[in-house]
Amino acid sequence: MNREQIMSVLYDIGLVIGGEVSLKPLLTRTLQRLLYHTSFPTGLVFLDVPAGDTASVEATLEVAIGDFGLAGLVGQRLSLPSALLRGGPEVREAPELLAALPTAGRSYQVFLRLPIDHCGVLLMLAPRQPRTQLPLTEIFRPVMANLAKAILLCRRNDAYAAGLVTERNLARQSQVESEEKFRSMTTVAQDAIVMIDDEGRIAYWNPAAERFFGYRADEAMGLDAHTLMAPERFQDSFRAGFAHFRSSGNGPVIGKTIEIEGRRRDGSEFPVEISISALSQHGRWYAVGLLRDISERRAADLALRQANRALKTLSGCNGILVRASEESRLLRDICALIVETGGYRGAWVGYASADGAGLSPVANAGIERDYIDTLDLSLSANPQTQGPAARAFLTGQAQRVQDIASDPGYPGQRTAALQHGIAASLALPLLDGGTPFGILKVYAGTREAFGGEEVVLLTELADDLAFGIVTLRTRIEREALEAAKCESADRLKRALLGTIQAVALTVEKRDPYTAGHQQKVARLAVAIARELGWPRDQIEGVRLGGMIHDIGKIYVPSEILSRPGKLSDLEFGLIKMHPEVGHEILKDVELPWPVAQIILQHHERLDGKGYPAGLSADRIIPEARLLAIADVVEAMASHRPYRAALGVEAALAEISKWRGRQFDPDMVDACLRVFREKGFSFD
Predict the structure, then answer these.
(1) What are the tens digits of pLDDT across the range 540-580?
(2) Angle at 346 between CA 341 and CA 352, to 5 degrees
(3) Residue 323 dihedral angles phi and psi, to the nearest 5°
(4) CA within 20 to 30 Å of 490's CA: 136, 247, 363, 464, which one?
(5) For residue 30, what pLDDT is reported?
(6) What pLDDT is stored for residue 292 in this prediction?
(7) What does residue 268 show for φ and ψ, rounded to 5 degrees?
(8) What pLDDT does residue 504 have?
C-alpha cells in the first residue's frame, strides 16, 4: 500500500472522528471504519481501563460490533486478562487470552490492540490473521491520539446536553445556530456536498456542486440524482443499490469512500472521490455525499507513474545494450523488458523488407504473433489506410494513438486490437543517421497511456535501441566494438542525466518560491566536495543527489509548499515525508551513484535528531552529510514564503553553531573555506 492510500485511510477515519459530537456514535462509527480498513470482523471498545500490574482487570464494555454475544454485554463490567487490555499497539495470535471473552459459538485466535491515550483500549478480533498491507501497529497512532481528544470533547458535550434537555428555547437557538453554521460551512467548502432523499432526488446542492457539475442549485433541486450526476453506464447499478438503501439506510457504498466517474452538464466525465453516509430524518433515509474532484491528483499520479515506468525501462535498456553481443537476442530482450519491466501490454520490432515494400516483424513479446501477422504493414499502401507503424517508418516521426476504440485514423485492425486487450499504441522509428530502417511498436492496455514525458523517454529508448542495432551490425574489430559500447553507455548516461534534470525542473515548477533551490544546493555541494578532495565520480554522485534531493515534494500539494503562514502538524508531517517519497521513486532506477540513499538521508543529523529514520554519525553516508550542510545554507540564505532571506552569514553561523553535533565538522570547515577564502557565491 502506497503513502497516498494510507493518507486516504487516515483522512476517512479523521472525517468520522471530527464529525461526531456524542460519545456513543463517535465510538461506534470510528470502530466501524477501523474494522472496514483492517478486515477484522469484530471490534470492542473499553473505556477507563484501570492502571496497575494485576493479572486481570475489570473494565466496562462500551461498544461491541460484529459479535451478537458480546453486543449483549455492552454496558457491563468484564473481568479479562491484563495482557489483553493493557500494553502498546500489538497484533498477536493468543487464543488462550481470547478464550477469556464471555462469548459462545465463535473462536477467536488473533487480536489487534490499539490503546486510546489515557482513555481506554480498542480491540479488534479475528479467527485468523486478516490479509492487509496496512502497518497495523503504527498507522493508527495519530488516529488513537485524535480519538482520545474527541472522547473528552464528546463527554463534555454529552454532559452539557443532558443539562439542557428541558431548555426548549436554548435548544431552538442552538438548532438555528447549527443550521446557520452548516450553511456557512457547506457554502465555503471546496468539496461538493449533495443530499439525496429516499426517492433518489436531490435535496441539497452546495456551491461546490454547482462548480463541479455545472447545474445551479435551483436547477438541480428535486431532480433524479443518478440521472443528473452519473454516466449512463452506471445508473442501473446505482438505482439497484438505492432501492435497498431507501428501506434500511444500508447499501454497498454507505460508509465507504470510493472513486467513480461523474458527469458534467456538457456530458464530459471527470473522476470523483465520494464518501457517502446515511442520515435518518422524520422516518426517512437520506444519503449525504461528500464529493471531491480528483482530476488533478489522478493526472499527476498517472504522469508520474508513466514517466517512472518509462525511466525504469530506459534504465534496463542500458544494461541490455551493454551486454548485447547478438542482434536477435538483443531484440527479444528489449521487447521482453518493455513488457515485464515497463508493464506495457506488448511490443514488437520490425525491419523494412529487402525490396522496401513493407515491414517484417522480427521480434515480439506480450502480444501473440498471430495478431501481428494480421497487420497491414505495407509501405506503399494508400496513406489514408496506412497504420501507425507504416506512418512512423515513412515520416521518421513517432505515431501515438491514445484511444484505438475511437481514433478515426486507426486502420481496419481496430476490432482485432481491442480483442487482444490493446487500447493505445506508440510507433517509434528506428533511425540510422536519420534514415529509418525499422520500427519499435509499443502497446498499452489502457487509454491515454502515453503521456508527453513518457513519449520522450520511449523515443530515447528507441534511439538507443537503433544505436545498439547499428553498433552490432557494424562491429568488425574489437576496438570498434569497445568504442561503440562506450558511446552507447555515454548516450544512456546522458539520457538518465537529462531525465533527472527534467524531473528536478518539474519539482521546482510546482514551488516558485524555491525555484533554483536544488540547482544552487548542487553547486554548493560540488564546491565543498572539491574542497575536501573527493574523487570526480563521487562528486558527480553528490551533484546529481543535490539536483533532485527534493523530488519527493512532488507528492506534497502545491498550496502547502507555497503557504506563507505556519503549517499544521499534519501538513508539516506531509512535507517531512518527501525524503522517503523521493527514495521510493528512485530506488529501483539503476544508477552508478547512491542517489536514492542521498535523497533518503539528506535530513538526517549526526546527533540522531533528524528524519525520517533518526540515523546518526557514520550511519549517514558521506554524500548525505555533505548535502545536509549545503541544503541548510542555501535555504537560510534565500527567501521563503514564510520569511525573508536570512543571508549567507547567518547560514554560516548556523552550521558553525551545530558543528560536530548535527553537522560533520570537516565538512562545515570546508564549507566556510569555500565562502570566505574561495569566494563562492550563489549569484
Answers:
(1) 999 999 988 988 888 788 777 777 777 788 888 888 899 99
(2) 115
(3) -90, -10
(4) 363
(5) 92
(6) 87
(7) -70, 155
(8) 64
Q: Helix, strand or coil for residue 52?
A: coil
Dihedral sign from CA coordinates of 113, 117, 120, 122: negative
Alpha-carbon span 484 to 490, nearest angstrom: 10
- Candidates 605, 608, 548, 607; CA nearest to 578 is 548
**Cβ contact 461:556 at 8 Å:** no
- For residue 602, what is the DSSP state? T
Residue 289, strand partner residues: 194, 276
* Three-state secondary structure call for residue 86: coil
- The pLDDT, as a whole number, for residue 482 is 63
pLDDT under 50: residue ranges of the chain:
105, 171, 476, 481
Chain centroid offset of residue 291 CA? 19
Cell of 248: 434500511
| Assigned C-alpha cell, 253 | 457504498
What order of strands is seen across the sheet that includes strand 42-47? 77-81, 56-65, 42-47, 120-126, 110-116, 90-93
Q: Which amino acid is at 170?
A: L
Give the C-alpha distances (Å, rounded to integers) separating 249 from 56, 223, 309.
40, 21, 44
Cell (9 digits) for 371: 495478431
Would you call 543 helix, strand, or coil by DSSP?
A: helix
Distance between CA atoms of residues 112 and 123, nearest Å:
6
Q: Which three cell numbers stand for residue 476?
A: 568488425
pLDDT in tens, 31-80: 998 988 888 999 999 998 888 888 899 999 999 998 888 888 999 999 99
395 CB-near residues (< 8 Å, 6+ apart): 429
In the chain, the N- to C-terminal Cα span, in Å, equals: 43
Q: Mutual orientation of helices 517-531 and 536-547 as an angle, nearest 10°? A: 160
CB distance 376 to 385 below 8 Å: yes
What sign has the CA pseudo-torsion 416, 420, 423, 425? negative
pLDDT of residue 259: 83
The H-assigned helical ranges of 91-204 are 95-98, 136-139, 141-162, 168-188
Rg (CA), the chain: 31
Given this model, what pLDDT does residue 532 score?
Answer: 96
Q: What is the DSSP letter of 85?
A: H
- Whose CA is closest to 491, among 464, 455, 457? 464
C-alpha separations of 627 from 187, 337, 446, 614 in Å: 46, 34, 40, 16
Q: Indicate the helix (H) or strand (E) that contains 299.
A: helix 295-323
Determine the residue type at 25: P
Q: Do residues 578 and 555 make contact, with C-beta atoms less than 8 angstroms apart?
A: yes
Q: Which amino acid appears at position 563 of this protein?
A: R
How many C-beta atoms surround the C-beta of residue 372 within 10 A?
Answer: 17
pTM of the model: 0.35
Instruction: Measure the CA–CA gap between 557 and 49, rounded to whole angstroms.
Output: 40
pLDDT of residue 558: 75
The alpha carbon dihedral of 151, 156, 159, 165 has a sign of negative
pLDDT confidence of residue 286: 84
Cα torsion 41, 2, 604, 304 to 10°: value is -170
Rounded-to-integer distance, Cα 460 and Cα 453, Å: 11
Closest CA relative to residue 498, chosen from 307, 302, 316: 307
Q: What's the grid cell of residue 487?
A: 558511446
Q: Phi, psi (5° rounding) for residue 224?
A: -65, 120
Q: 224 to each of 196, 202, 387, how far by Cα in Å? A: 9, 6, 45
CA dihedral 515, 518, 520, 524 (to 10 degrees): 160
Q: Which amino acid is at 654?
A: E
Contact 314, 299 (CB under 8 A): no
